[in-house]
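Predict the holo structure. Ligand: iron/sulfur cluster.
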Amino acid sequence: MALTGIEIFKYLPKTNCAECGIATCLAFAMNVAAAKTGIDKCPYISDQIKETLVESSAPPVRQILFGTGSQEVKLGGESVLFRHERRFENQTAIGLLLTTGAACQVNDDKVASFKELRYERAGHKLAADFFFVENDNNSSKDFLNLLMKVKDIAALAVCAYSLQDAKQAMTVVGQCKPLLCGALEEDLEGYIALAKQYGCPLAIVALSLPQARAMTQKALSLGFKDLVFSVGTGGSVAAGLEFSVETRNAAVKDKDKLLGFPTLLYPCAFNKDLPGQFLNASILMAKYASALVMSEFKGQFLYPLLTARLNIFTDPQRPLTMPQSIYTIGKADENSPVVLSCNFALTYFIVSAEIENSMVPAHFIIKDTEGLSVLTAWAAGKFSADSIAAYVKKSGIADKVTHRKLIIPGYVSIESAALEEELPGWQVIVGPQDAAALPAFLKQWSC
Ligand code: SF4
């Protein structure tokens, strides 16, 4: 179980030297407990104590990594049941099923959809994460060909159904550190040896909690910890959901180390119809599925699922933000209005939508307010005349427009005079308080 800040504090030197970058040992301990910094930042803790703290602070659900470099996928690492208790650490990974039994064209179309269906929302890039490659026709040749085709595109989960096939597959993709799938109880030892050889995690086929415990126990006795529960493809969505909820509860509430591993579930096997499949995926995602395998991607289903994932896995203590930048709305040119606001994502979406509604192309200049809304940012001193002026000067907006008029939110009208002083040559225009009034306001624009 994760240690509290006070428990960690007991192990610290208590000299408040600040070499860790934090003013006091107590504050450092609190930051370590909240996973905001690492225990290794304090140079005065012995390796033995570090090891004790790392072991004691490990999350109840082990974090598992597969894939390499920018394709790396993180599963698990969770320590809470509800995100408001702290946050969820690693978003549910979304995989696409490719099978050797399918026609080449079917797999090619799926791979094309995987590459194509990528989105951006509130400054976040949204996309699927891995291919789940299954040798469902027991053809080693087809299996190796398919793996070769996709191994450089994304992380892989490799499902062979025989240890022999798995060994062959790993000679081709072992260096990509795939998630090795399909280990049954009877050949667990062989799969563990293979996973150890390539430094890969292993997904074990667990049909029930007792079986999952027994297989984990055996793996741990063999010195192997990088496990994922592959929750029976033949089961129902209800059985998958039950397994997912019970393992998270057991790991977090009961401190059951034998069930503290991520889960891999298969909406592709639960539903043949795509709407039902994606609906079930969203339910499983909300209740602890670490990875999901879908039979195919269509934008109208994938995008809502990715958006739901973004909402579930954002840190509730950190508001969604937009990067500080100048956003061009419509075909804005040097005569277009310049509208200023904060970088709270909700504000950005509401205001940018109203600018679009006005049909008046504009430069929308977003200042970093650490995700605070206009009034809150102003009250916190993050949307004051001097800070706005400093950003406007360095933003480059003066090179994009020939006029010198800046529209600020009505809520900070009090800053307009000070802002004009800070920005010589600029005329500050107070815009409406309510974004809904922007279309009518912008229609009056003339530079
Ligand atoms: Fe305390 Fe270590 Fe940080 Fe110094 S470096 S303040 S001793 S935690």
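The mean pLDDT is 93. The radius of gyration is 26 Å.
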